[in-house]
From TrEMBL:
The lineage of its organism: Bacteria, Pseudomonadati, Pseudomonadota, Betaproteobacteria, Burkholderiales. This is UDP-galactopyranose mutase. The keyword Isomerase applies. It is an enzyme of class 5 (isomerase). Keywords: FAD, Flavoprotein, Isomerase. Residues 147-344 form the UDP-galactopyranose mutase C-terminal domain. NCBIfam families: UDP-GALP_mutase. It comes from Paraburkholderia phytofirmans. PANTHER family: UDP-GALACTOPYRANOSE MUTASE (PTHR21197).
Length: 363
């Protein structure tokens, strides 16, 4: 059978492209090397009946009305505003840093203006904001940097703040009020029945065929199609012609606690300075599920393994641009998604990029 489009990867990027193209009358084949759809956003019930995210927590948030309305065609939503605490010397502090964090940490009683003045007094001015260290020091100074950011960054990326591009630290704001939400986007929800149920509905179009546990390297010369949408690592597509692009990986330690209704105060707790893991997430906070026990996951950053995070450094960007030039010279393939575009995208950014790509292809 000949397809209008072969889509490699059944995560957000591939699924959105598949649904939009199918709805435009195109015949689409979606393949994925894993045995499930949803990519890293895949969720499922563990053996104890708790809905978990096997690949770590995925919290949906966006200020893009179009993105939210599009996904609303395939799921109902549960209101959820994610909150994170950082564990420091036996105490827990809101992160991003806010008024509560500073007052509790330093034994102060500052109002909002007082917090602004305090931060102004400890900031270390930087003429040129080139690295994540520049971002953090110019925002909160060295003490808060060392307590909350430097150790976490070293674990997460295997690099010091000074060795990471500015955009990494710029993702985390600093607040002078008591707002303890991790995100401030307009739309903060979780799919009411989970991500996988949403993906199933998106891929349920009669013009879409899904094949799992399939290797693109095997099928690329077999499947007859007009166009390919590729969402995997761009360097792998070109057989690592210029060498491998660096990615950071993760391993996950899942645990179920019997007869424990709640393990921790918030959905996620960060551990910037102790333990090998960076954070613990308790899924019932995210899903709202009622269950007599609870399931948690500890995240351990790794240098090797499945690619999760493109590592934002200037030399890596230069290498990516060489692959991007090859992609631009491959007109019958469209590259979209975090790995294909070597970008540290949030889920909503991937959806937005995929919607744009699908509209162009549909025309």
């Amino acid at each position: 059978m000949k397809y209008d489009a072969l889509i490699v990867g059944a995560g957000f990027a591939g699924t959105v492209c598949a649904e939009r193209l199918a709805s435009a009358g195109k015949r689409v084949l979606v393949i994925d090397k894993r045995n499930h759809i949803g990519g890293n956003a895949f969720d499922c019930y563990d053996e104890n009946g708790v809905l978990i995210h096997p690949y770590g927590p995925h919290i949906f948030h966006t200020s893009g009305k179009r993105i939210f309305e599009y996904l609303s065609n395939f799921t109902d939503w549960r209101l959820y505003e994610h909150r994170v605490l950082a564990h420091l010397d036996g105490e827990f502090y809101p992160i991003p840093i806010n008024r509560t964090t500073i007052n509790k940490l330093y034994g102060l009683d500052l109002n909002e203006e007082g917090v602004k003045a305090y931060l102004e007094s400890v900031r270390e001015a930087r003429n040129d904001i080139a690295t994540s260290e520049d971002v953090v020091l110019s925002s909160v100074g060295s003490d808060l940097c060392d307590k909350f950011f430097r150790g976490y960054t070293q674990k997460q990326w295997g690099l010091d703040l000074a060795d990471l591009s500015a955009g990494v630290a710029a993702r985390i704001p600093t607040r002078s009020n008591d707002d303890d939400r991790y995100f401030t986007d307009t739309y903060q929800f979780m799919p009411a029945r989970g991500y996988t149920a949403m993906f199933e509905k998106m891929l349920g179009h009669p013009n879409i065929e899904v094949r799992l546990s399939e290797d693109f390297r095997v099928l690329r010369s077999v499947v007859e199609r007009e166009h390919t949408v590729y969402t995997g690592p761009i360097d792998a597509f070109f057989d690592y012609r210029f060498g491998k692009l660096p990615y950071r990986s993760l391993s996950f330690q899942h645990e179920h606690l019997t007869d424990v209704d709640q393990f921790q105060q918030t959905g996620t707790i960060n551990y910037p300075n102790d333990h090998e893991y960076t954070r613990i997430t308790e899924f019932k906070h995210l899903t709202g599920q009622q269950h007599s026990g609870t399931s948690i996951v500890r995240e351990y950053p790794r240098a090797e393994g499945d690619p999760y995070y493109p590592i934002p450094r200037s030399e890596n960007e230069a290498l990516f641009k060489r692959y991007h030039e090859l992609a631009e010279a491959t007109p019958d393939v469209t590259f979209v998604g975090r790995l294909a575009q070597y970008r540290y995208y949030n889920m909503d950014q991937v959806v937005g990029a995929a919607l744009k790509v699908a509209e162009e292809l549909a025309q």
